[in-house]
């Protein structure tokens, strides 16, 4: 995310890319969605879910269009460089400087009206993986680039805080209670307070913080090194995720089918919209990883339609998971982490399944935490980097990892309210990444494309929402959501 042009990687088919995008989007946010649905009401939740899915799809096409525009400009720069080398070898050095420059002078760009006709017919082909940081450097001014990195960093901090809270919370919920929190005489939906006893004199909140300390000691050191997600680890975590989701949906359907469903969700409860909005935005987040997902796809001829199909499948899955949850469990008994509702004998008799679902977040989230932490650390380094300068060893290897690791751990130490963490992260930083940044990227890339290639040039990966109205609509929506969420928080705090 912090880098510029990176290796495209091994190519894969469009349908494999569709699966990868599905796996990326459907993550931790899906586990917090059932409670948000129950709080806001089923009709309001469904309408908002469909609308936010549509908005996310629109901004996804914006990012893909910007990626194509960035590829076209880089390809044109290479063409111009080769042309100059053929005409005059002495000018090659200065041309190469221009080629690698991230923030080039817009005033020096001249319309090249004939480049599309006489150049490569695939000048807008997405062949180079240009990360969002590089696109921001190409299309934004210095203030815009800094705001971009600020937004990305805040979002990643929220991500790490959610991960750091979810793992200890799951461990506490599975292992705590002197009476046997998950024995067959205690229902999984039983509510516990943080001050309730866990083991002997140890309270539940103490157990949570002990697990948080262990989690930090085990996974925190990875922030000081470089880690890479392996292909086999991705396959394993994806397999575990889908087994867990399938089990939860099937068990909920069986209980509803047997007339054991306890849920009677309201049609609408507007007090829950704030958290629902944040959870839904967080649950559709993929824009920051699109360059890594889209670029290696071997054929991008029907990429827009395939992405639309992906979003339709994701909407269907979210609706199925959430509706089975809110009609299976009473609204008051739904937990922040939906998997924890299946850890009692009144729901599941098989102890293996109970512990698999209860500990599911521990296995899957723990593998992602070091990767997100290293990504955040690299974004900090990129934000403060000055060309030609090297960081001192202490700053590079100690300071940046510490400022990456400490804040989310402190947040997780203070609260394990996952619904609020996901809601706030999605409503603020997620709002910027999913709406504001893509809208400005596509607007600036269209402006630059016309300036460089002329007004008659057509981007082959142009978004179906090509009118400027849609860009303005996204920005107005994002600003309105920001005001609504902020006002809702202030009013809620005032009432308390």
UniProtKB/TrEMBL annotation:
<feature type="transmembrane region" description="Helical">
    <location>
        <begin position="394"/>
        <end position="413"/>
    </location>
</feature>
<feature type="domain" description="Amino acid transporter transmembrane">
    <location>
        <begin position="20"/>
        <end position="65"/>
    </location>
</feature>
<feature type="transmembrane region" description="Helical">
    <location>
        <begin position="208"/>
        <end position="227"/>
    </location>
</feature>
<feature type="transmembrane region" description="Helical">
    <location>
        <begin position="147"/>
        <end position="166"/>
    </location>
</feature>
<feature type="transmembrane region" description="Helical">
    <location>
        <begin position="12"/>
        <end position="31"/>
    </location>
</feature>
<feature type="domain" description="Amino acid transporter transmembrane">
    <location>
        <begin position="133"/>
        <end position="450"/>
    </location>
</feature>
<feature type="transmembrane region" description="Helical">
    <location>
        <begin position="37"/>
        <end position="57"/>
    </location>
</feature>
<feature type="transmembrane region" description="Helical">
    <location>
        <begin position="347"/>
        <end position="373"/>
    </location>
</feature>
<comment type="similarity">
    <text>Belongs to the TMEM104 family.</text>
</comment>
<feature type="transmembrane region" description="Helical">
    <location>
        <begin position="306"/>
        <end position="327"/>
    </location>
</feature>
<keyword id="KW-0812">Transmembrane</keyword>
<keyword id="KW-0325">Glycoprotein</keyword>
<feature type="transmembrane region" description="Helical">
    <location>
        <begin position="239"/>
        <end position="256"/>
    </location>
</feature>
<dbReference type="InterPro" id="IPR013057">
    <property type="entry name" value="AA_transpt_TM"/>
</dbReference>
<feature type="transmembrane region" description="Helical">
    <location>
        <begin position="469"/>
        <end position="491"/>
    </location>
</feature>
<dbReference type="Pfam" id="PF01490">
    <property type="entry name" value="Aa_trans"/>
</dbReference>
<protein>
    <submittedName>
        <fullName>Transmembrane protein 104</fullName>
    </submittedName>
</protein>
<keyword id="KW-1133">Transmembrane helix</keyword>
<keyword id="KW-0472">Membrane</keyword>
<dbReference type="GO" id="GO:0016020">
    <property type="term" value="C:membrane"/>
</dbReference>
